[in-house]
Amino acid sequence: MSFTLAIVGRPNVGKSTLFNRLVGRRLAIVDDQPGVTRDLREGEAKLGDLTFTVLDTAGLEDATDDSLPARMRRLTERAVDMADVCLFVVDARTGITPTDEIFAEILRKRAGHVLLAVNKAEGRNTEGGVLEAWNLGLGEPIPLSAEHGEGMPDLYAALMPLADGFAEAAERAPDEPDLGLPVSEEADEGMQVPTLEKPLQIAVVGRPNAGKSTLINKLLGEERLLTGPEAGITRDAISVMMDWEGVPTRIFDTAGMRKKAKVQEKLEKLSVADGLRAVKFAEVVVVLLDAAIPFEQQDLRIADLAEREGRAVVVAVNKWDLEEDKGAKLKELREAFDRLLPQLRGAPLVTVSAKTGRGLDRLRGAVIRAHEVWNTRVPTAKLNRWLGEMIEAHPPPAPGGRRIRLRYMTQAKTRPPHFVVMCSHPDKMQDSYTRYLVNGLRADFDMPGTPIRLVMRGQG
Ligand code: GDP
Ligand code: GDP
Fold this sequence. Notes:
With 460 residues, the chain is α/β, with parallel strands linked by helices. The protein has three domains: 4-172, 3-Layer(aba) Sandwich (Rossmann fold); 200-375, P-loop containing nucleotide triphosphate hydrolases (Rossmann fold); 380-458, GMP Synthetase, Chain A, domain 3. Helices cover 37% and strands 21% of the residues. It has helices spanning 15-23, 70-82, 98-110, 127-133, 152-172, 185-190, 212-222, 255-260, 267-281, 297-308, 326-340, 360-374, 380-393, 431-444; strands at 4-8, 41-47, 50-56, 85-91, 113-119, 142-143, 200-205, 224-225, 230-231, 238-244, 247-253, 284-290, 312-318, 349-351, 406-413, 418-423, 453-457. Strand 2 and strand 3 form a beta hairpin. Helix 2 (70-82) packs parallel to helix 3 and helix 9 packs parallel to helix 10 (297-308). The longest helix is centred in the middle third of the chain and has 21 residues, at 152-172. It is flat and about 75 Å long. The two termini are 47 Å apart. One guanosine-5'-diphosphate binds next to helix 1. Residues 3-167, 200-375 form the EngA-type G domain. Pfam families: KH_dom-like (PF14714), MMR_HSR1 (PF01926). This is GTPase Der. Keywords: GTP-binding, Nucleotide-binding, Repeat, Ribosome biogenesis.
């Protein structure tokens, strides 16, 4: 099932660059027809395991900042009407302009589903533009860099639930011959609007033989499988949708389901690289360890990568049924965890047996909780009260006798939580003070097990 995405926005925000990145060389041959379609470039896009048609409205004469030439407005409206989803692109470097506001207005009135992308968000000092984009009232902005290819997993994560919704709607409403009859009320009720409920996206990663396929098969065996295994993001990774006791969940797996799909490959060699790929598409990463040989080099690498990619992490220790002295072992595991993975401080550690199914309820609870934490948004007023207390308890350093002043802070982004602290001399700020703030945020706002990003920024 495919859908159509229109990329809209004022000139120079990077629409064509994004179009080219999504489409690569898969440009559709467009009829040489006069009229509006000539101005709409169309291509077949691929993003992860999604394929869709993408329309580009770029290549128009420049619009001045306070007007939108009629032709551009017509073209945008045309693209909006043709599309299932609109991707509204703004520029992190210029911030929101009056022309952006006009586009936002058109989209609010006319478009069904709108995603908001803030392009050119690579490098430093672009949080301001991202923050500003919230004011458009079109939901959470997705920071991207079309030129550098950054942010594509987030775009994918935003599109995926919509794509699932379209696929479901298409299944429920099979193409019927159009008899030109008026649509009855009953038929209307039968039509389902694409669901906007985003499925939880998880990946199960770990070294070979940790029990990944056993775990996934156990989950799929017990839960309702919503769709069968599909060829996934790459030849090697596969995703399935399941209903995890009422929570729609997409599991990205690597070696596990490949075995099930009877694809014979060098599993041992591929599994780490596959795991790394799956991490990019997941919201919560379940790092599965073998209780007999926990925290091996490979496990640590995968967990560290998940943290660096900004994913929520749950550590599950498998084959717990084989452990004799469970109490002592658990203590040992926790100590090893804190020592070897300090960057994941407080992440949940759950013991399970994929084979017997014990502990899978707790695993589910930990995954859902980790996802919530990852989505945490702390109100600005609360943050600033907290910042005042933190400064009072332990003032920032005073390099060369001049104390660094922390002026205020705000949360720029969730998934994972990103905070920006405005201060004097951000370049002189010591890492130890930043760590003090991060650890404080984690403890005081109850955010265990999620990466927390905090940047210091100078004013203006
Ligand atoms: P369009 O008019 O919206 O289609 O914009 P273009 O794709 O033609 O891009 C306008 C300008 O922005 C070009 O110079 C691009 O190289 C530049 N650009 C596009 N994407 C990015 C990005 O992610 N980062 C930066 N820094 N520049 C970008
Ligand atoms: P994968 O390579 O990570 O997908 O690992 P598998 O799922 O193929 O499991 C590797 C081996 O560990 C198999 O022989 C499984 O039967 C076994 N195994 C997996 N989970 C458990 C468990 O919870 N308890 C026990 N005792 N064995 C397990």
